[in-house]
Amino acid sequence: MGQITLPGNPPIAVTLRRSTRARRLSLRLSQIDGRVTLTLPRRVPEREALGFLQEKEAWLRGHLDAREEDVPVLPGAVLPVEGQPRELRPGAGRAVRLTPEALEVPGAAGRVPARVRGWLRALARERLAEASDRHAAALGRPYSRITLRDTRSRWGSCTSDGALMYSWRLILAPPAVLDYVAAHEVAHLAEMNHSPRFWAVVEQLYGDWRAPRRWLRDEGAGLHRYRFDD
């Protein structure tokens, strides 16, 4: 439908969305990118939606204030690599270099986001391919290919033809979390569902999967705080 601005300090941009399936007005704040969406049932007039938004203003501002700020990936920023915080520092030579405390990135500061993103994607592909190969061999079922994306709604997926997709941001998480997601998606090669049989396969491949699954639920949205916009 469009976008409106809720006045105040600061003003809040709100996307209006009309849905034929909605039965009531609903307000949603994305913990991933901070976007605010107000959904309207088909016959609810916009003026009623605006009144609802004003009623919820205190709630909305409180949750926005509690949300962690985004982190631009620039020199001096700190971001996790395999769960360990690293400071982005200028580097020498041509290659990005990982040290116990830092990620050293050569070249102009303006190219840092793109270089770091490319380096992280390459490392994510290496780690996810290794984990997928290991779990697929243990299961005795091959996959067809691996694709990396920057998905917001899911950390991985498996298609009926055995294609695995992962979010490359898993490389920011602790290694156990990345390994769990790989085991989860490989398990779908045997069980394309989330039945007790499926979870038994995940446990067979990974072990007790509850802790990394809980980590993703509690901490996963924070991996999207790191902004690689050029």
Question: How would you describe this protein?
Answer:
- It is a single chain.
- The protein is of the alpha/beta class and 230 residues long.
- It folds into two domains: 2-66, no CATH class; 78-227, Zincin-like, CATH 3.30.2010.10.
- It is built from six helices and 13 strands.
- It has helices at residues 46-55, 57-66, 112-139, 175-187, 196-206, 210-219; strands spanning 2-6, 12-19, 26-29, 36-41, 71-72, 78-81, 84-90, 97-98, 102-105, 145-149, 156-158, 163-167, 226-227.
- A four-stranded mixed beta sheet has the order 1-2-4-3, with helices on one face. A four-stranded mixed beta sheet has the order 6-7-9-8, covered by helices on one side. The protein has a three-stranded mixed beta sheet with strand order 10-12-11, covered by helices on one side.
- Helix 4 (175-187) crosses helix 6.
- Pfam families: YgjP-like.
- Residues 26-218 form the YgjP-like metallopeptidase domain.
- It is an enzyme of class 3 (hydrolase).
- Its EC number is 3.4.24.-.
Compact summary:
The chain is 36% helix and 25% strand. It is an alpha/beta fold.
Helical segment tally? 6
N-to-C series of helices and strands: EEEEHHEEEEEHEEEHHHE
**How much helicity do the residues have?**
25-40%
Strand count, sense and closure of the main sheet?
4 strands, mixed
What general outline do the C-alpha atoms trace? Answer: flat
Question: Can you identify the CATH class of the largest domain?
Answer: Alpha Beta
